[in-house]
Amino acid sequence: MTRQAEGTVVGLIAGFYDVQTNEGVIRTRARGVFRQKKQKPTVGDHVEIQIDDQGTSYLVKILPRLNRIGRPAVANVSHVLLVISAVQPDFSVQLLDRFLTFFSWQKVAVTIYLSKSDLLENSSKLAQIKQDLSYYEKIGYPVFYDAKELVEKVPSMIKENQIWTLAGQSGAGKSTLLNQIKTDANQATGKISMVLNRGKHTTRQVQLFKVGEGFLADTPGFSSIDLTPIKINELCNYFIEFRRASSNCKFRGCQHLKEPGCEVKKELADQKIIQSRYDDYLAMRTEITEGRIPEYLK
Question: Has the keyword DNA-binding been applied to this entry (predicted)?
C-alpha cells in the first residue's frame, strides 16, 4: 500500500531529492517518467511523492512552477535578496540595473543589500553610492546598508512557503550573508581574485535553508545576465518607474524613444527619472536587438 505527500525540493544530492514535507525531510528518487518527458525536478519545485509500506519513496509529480531562474536553477522564487558590493568587486549602477531588469522580467520582487561598505576607505565614494541607491529606494526597492539589521529582519520578511534566493555578482558576499542569517548553513566563503576584480565561484549547488516561515537559497554568483530573450517591445515594462509613467504617455505601447507626448521622456527631463537608468535602458535595447551580451560583461 502506498500513500502520497506533497512538499518542496530543498536539495539535490547524487541523484536523490530531499523533499521538505509536513513529516520532515524525505529523501527520494525521481521516477523514470521524468526522463521520458525530458523533465527534471529542480530545487524549489513543489512536488508530489509516493511512499510505500517499506518506507521507499519516489518523486512522482512536479506541480506547476511560477518560474525557474539561475544556473543551477531554483524554482518558484518569490523574492531575491540582491547583494551588491561597494568594492571588491566595485559598485556598478549598470550591473544593478541589469539584475533589477532581469528579475522584474521574471516577476520576482527584489530587496537590495550593499555589502563591503566598511572596506571602502573613500567616504565621498560611499556617499555617492548611497546617493545612487536612494533613487532605487524612491522607486520602490528596499535597500539595506547594515548586515546586522538585515539579518535581524529577514526571518520575519520571509512569509509562509515563500522561497527567497540570494543573488549578485561573484564575491559580493552572498555566502557570508547566508552564514549570518542561517548560522548552521556552513557555506564556504571565497577569496577575491584581485586580478579579475571578481570573486571565485564558491557555491556549486543549490540548497534551500528553512528561514522564518519559508526558505532561503544560496546560488552561485552571476558573472553575467543574459537579457537577450526579452522581447524588445516589452523591455520598458521591466523598468518599474517607466511602467508607472507610461500610463500617461500619449500613445499606447510607447517605447520612450522619440514618440511625442512621452511621459517617461518628460520625467527624464524633469529629473524625476535619472539619466543613468534611461541610458541603461537604451543600452539594453541595443543588446537585445544585436542578440548578444556586451563584451565587458563576459
Answer: no
169 is in an annotated binding site: yes
Residue 9 sits in the same domain as residue 146: no
Instruction: Say what the pTM is.
Output: 0.85
175 is in an annotated binding site: yes
236 is in an annotated binding site: no
53, 89, 177, 273, 296 from 197: Cα distances, Å: 55, 5, 20, 30, 13
Is position 117 annotated in a ligand binding site? yes
Consult the annotation and say whether 118 binds a ligand: yes
116 plus 198 within the same structural domain = yes
207 is in an annotated binding site: no
Instruction: Please count the helices (runs of H) and the strands (runs of E) in the chain.
Output: 8, 15
For residues 57 and 82, state if they share a domain.
no
Could you give the residue ranges of the DSSP H alpha helices within 166-294? 174-181, 240-246, 263-269, 275-290
Say whether both 273 and 173 belong to one domain: no
Residue 97 labelled as part of a binding site: no
The answer to the question of whether 256 is labelled as a binding residue is: yes
